[in-house]
Write a structure and sequence with these properties.
Helix content is 26%, strand content 42%. It is globular and about 30 Å long. It has 92 residues and is an alpha+beta fold. The chain starts with a strand and ends with a strand.
Length: 92
């Protein structure tokens, strides 16, 4: 079943290539959505894919998708509304 999830990553997630690591992972896993920095130092991720793929994606994000970042907390919200993403995009 296709699901959509909103994630907010807390920790050392800005200035360390986190968004680009998330983009690479999402593209590799055929996940659609976006990733962007927030003014409070967190990073927001919107992801749409099959539930099993999202679970693997979330696990990898929690572990930190690159050696330079550290995810201390990951807020997860499953959404009932889907946005019409056609790819996975880094938003500046």
């Amino acid at each position: 079943m296709i699901k959509n999830v909103s994630l907010v990553a807390h920790g050392r997630v800005q200035g360390v290539g986190f968004r680009y690591s998330v983009h690479h992972l999402a593209t590799k896993m055929n996940i659609l959505g976006t990733v962007k920095n927030n003014v409070d130092g967190t990073v927001s991720i919107e992801a749409t894919a099959e539930d099993i793929i999202l679970q693997d994606f979330i696990s990898t994000i929690k572990a930190g998708p690159s050696a330079f970042c550290r995810v201390d907390q990951l807020d997860i919200t499953y959404n009932t509304e889907f946005k019409n993403y056609t790819n996975f995009e880094v938003i500046s």
